[in-house]
Amino acid sequence: MENFKLLGKKATRFGFAEALVELGEKYPNVVVLGADVTGSVLTSFFRDKFPDRFFSIGVAEQNATTIAVGLALSGKIPFFATYSAFSAFRNADQLRISVCYNNANVKIGGGHSGITVGPDGATHQALEELSLLRTLPNMTLVVPCDYIETRKATLAVAEFFGPAFVRFGRAPVPWFTTEETSFKIGKAEIFREGKDVAIVACGLMVWEALVAAEELWKRRGISAMVINNHTLKPIDVKTLVDAAKLCGAVVTAEEHQVHGGLGGAVAEVLAKNYPVPMEFVGMPDTFGVSGEPEELLVKFGMTWREIYSSALKVIERRDNKIGSNHVYRKVKDIAPLSNDIL
Amino acid sequence: MKFKKILFHNFVFFAITMEIFFEPKVFENKKRKPEEFAEIAKELRRDVIKSLLLAKSGHSGGSLGTADIFAVLFFGGFLRYKPENPKWEKRDRFVLSAGHICPILYATLARAGFFPVAELATLRKLGSRLQGHPALDTELPGIETSAGSLGQGISIAVGMALSDKYLDKNDRRVFALTGDGELQEGSTWEAAMAAGNYKLDNLCWIVDNNDCQIDGRVREVMSIYPIDKKFEAFNFDVITIDGHNYNEIINAFEKFINNHNNQIGKPTVIIAKTKMGFPISFMTDNYEWHGIPPNEEQALRALAELQ
Ligand SMILES: Cc1ncc(C[n+]2csc(CCOP(=O)(O)OP(=O)(O)O)c2C)c(N)n1
Ligand SMILES: [Mg+2]
Fold first, then answer.
1. Domain boundaries, chain A
2. Distance between B151 CA and the closest CA of chain A, angstroms
């Protein structure tokens, strides 16, 4: 088990941008599309190195998404990146029909995502796109936890055929994984062993989860497992179910609305396979406001403190079986099986 | 250097609390001679510089470049409004589709008396009504719609104009401002199509044609030219002006008002040739100023140029 330490702070968009340059060198059919935010999402790195394989489309995200599909249907591996607010929402219909229904080999970068885009305010703080993207058939959805993992994720999505979305951010955030940290699309990684409660996180909340786990241990002797669930789709059912079986209580944490994102995905898996009490840390069903990234994470309750208190709450619910004292009758004893032939 | 910085911060803080930094002066909305607008536009530009300096992020270029248009529209008797009754049901409406240049809208609304001028010091800060992009939910007086996702405001303006002309059958007007990079959004042309189709002579669309956007020159990032012929094809009355010439701005708005009064059955578009960052020497016509604020030294230089 790797013992994670803070290595510094770095914006995850650098991981995306550096990986694109690497991919450009490796694959001559990797192309990049820009929608007038090239310097912000740093696709400028690729543009400056491979000007012939960069297409400026202008502020026209719907067009860029569908042009990418045309390129993909002509054997290219197009990456289109802009702010998540516009690379997942403005072009949602294009993503659904042209990208996913075609199962086109289009890779989308969602930059400046989450509340940490800060002072630009609610219009630019994409906090809902995971829920939308997660429901699209054929889509692979990755929310890496730091700069290094964003680089790995971007490299990895080029290695398989089909639509993919990689989410990253603008603000410098904790950087704590290394080249050696294992990463595989579709595989949730246990970042800390524990047996009292499982914290399932993605994006910058993975670091907060590690901090919360350490505080739970130091202050209360509670042993918390931390899972880095970077791939929301396809989701790693086995790791999640095993964690639920071992701990019997789960907290999810994400820089996204509490509804429909990672929390929803984990709840779906557990409800079907092994229901346990859950608590959800995330944006509390409201739009954001202007402010500095750190201020906003505190204001809207997306820090280790909320994970800590949610862990205590979910353990309490498990231990006291809150809400589960009703006795259900056993249906198999009252209805003849032959009635089930439909 | 450090010491100078601390001095500066103390000065700004002091100046704000003493209301020196944002002197609470408001302007009347009335028919004016062209040269009178220079003083107003200068004050608006100073507000833009000061509020962006304090915010430490935000969009200088378009906010400064459109100040002359805002001065004439809001203080020349063209847009009809009552700051003391912002929801006045006979008011004309102004929609800022290019939501990112809201610092100039905030300065204008404050100087028109919609809210205290000192509030400009809160731009983009936690708890402020002056959000990074205009937000209806903060209930900042004078804001007609949230905006920030380019290309949407103009369609909202079309909806307002439709409602005024055909449903409420009143004589209100709708003014809307888009950027020129914004015209790359296909939906803006859907708005143009609808405005032309519905003969919305109560709609005045202003294009801030500075030929700048984030990635560079509009003509290089993705050309939208010719702009005038496109609007003509959509049945607009097209007026092309120098967006820093008060005579031309006044004439353009007068033309639109005549168009509306005479029910010409066409929407009006004013293509305003402007310069991003104008008239600050080190910002003018430089797209790198699209989305950044001045630092302390730059702000002082800019304010000195705006004496
Ligand atoms: C739908 C959408 N895509 C992208 C952006 C990011 N963005 C904000 S301003 C801007 C450039 C707009 O250019 P222009 O309209 O010419 O405004 P100017 O730079 O002249 O102020 C972009 C791409 C956005 N706000 N909305
Ligand atoms: Mg422009």
1. 8-175, 189-333
2. 9
Q: Which ligand is the nearest neighbour of the Cα of B100?
A: 1
pTM of the model: 0.95
Conformational region of residue A128, where left means phi above 0, alpha means psi within -120 to 50, and beta covers everything else: alpha
Q: Are strands A77-83 and B212-213 parallel, antiparallel or unpaired?
A: unpaired
> A204 vs chain B: nearest CA distance in angstroms?
21
CATH for A8-175?
A: 3.40.50.970
Neighbouring-strand partners of residue A227: A190, A200
Cβ burial A128-145 (10 Å sphere, 16+ → b, else e)? bbbbbbbebeebbbbbbb
The span from the CA of B137 to the CA of B122, in Å, is 17
Assign A340 a pLDDT band (cuts: 50, 70, 90). Answer: confident
Which pLDDT value is given to residue B18? 59
Distance (Å) from CA B17 to ligand 1 centroid: 34
Helix A237-247 to helix A262-273 angle, to the nearest 10 degrees?
Answer: 70
B200: how many CB neighbours lie within 10 A of its CB? 27
Angle, CA A271 vertex, CA A327 and CA A205 arms, to 5°: 130
User: Rounded distance, CA B198 to CA B192, Å?
Assistant: 10
Q: Which two tokens stand for residue B184?
A: 């790359």
Local mean pLDDT, 10-residue blocks, chain B (307 residues): 66 66 94 98 98 97 98 98 98 98 98 97 97 97 98 98 98 98 98 98 98 98 98 98 98 98 98 98 98 97 96
For A300-321, the DSSP string reads: TT-SHHHHHHHHHHHHHHHHTT
Site residues for ligand 1, CB cut-off 6 Å: A 36-37, 59, 86, 90; B 61-62, 98, 100-101, 148-151, 179-182, 208, 210, 212-214, 276, 290
Contact list, B99 vs chain A (CB under 8 Å): 123
Q: How far apart are CA B294 and CA B284, in angstroms?
A: 13
**Rg (alpha carbons) of chain A, rounded to whole number:** 21
Q: How far is the CA of A293 from the centre of ligand 2 (A)?
A: 28
Query: Cα distance from B203 to chain A (closest Cα, Å)?
Result: 24
Q: Is this complex scored with an ipTM above 0.85?
A: yes
| A250-297 residue pLDDT tens | 999 999 999 999 999 999 999 999 999 999 999 999 999 999 999 999
What fold, for A189-333?
Rossmann fold (3.40.50)
Q: For A63-106, what is each residue's pLDDT tens digit?
A: 999 999 999 999 999 999 999 999 999 999 999 999 999 999 99
Residues of B with CB under 8 A from a CB of A: 55-58, 99, 124-128, 130-133, 135, 137, 146-151, 181-182, 184-186, 213-215, 220-222, 224
Tokens (6 digits) for A141? 């959805």
Domains by residue range for chain B, with CATH: 2-305 (3.40.50.970)
> What letter does residue B149 receive in the DSSP assignment?
S
- A287 touches B at CB < 8 Å: yes
Question: For residue B52, how far is the Cα from the chain centroid?
Answer: 15
Tell me whether residues A119 and B55 touch, CB distance under 8 A: yes
Q: Do domains A8-175 and A189-333 have the same CATH topology?
A: yes
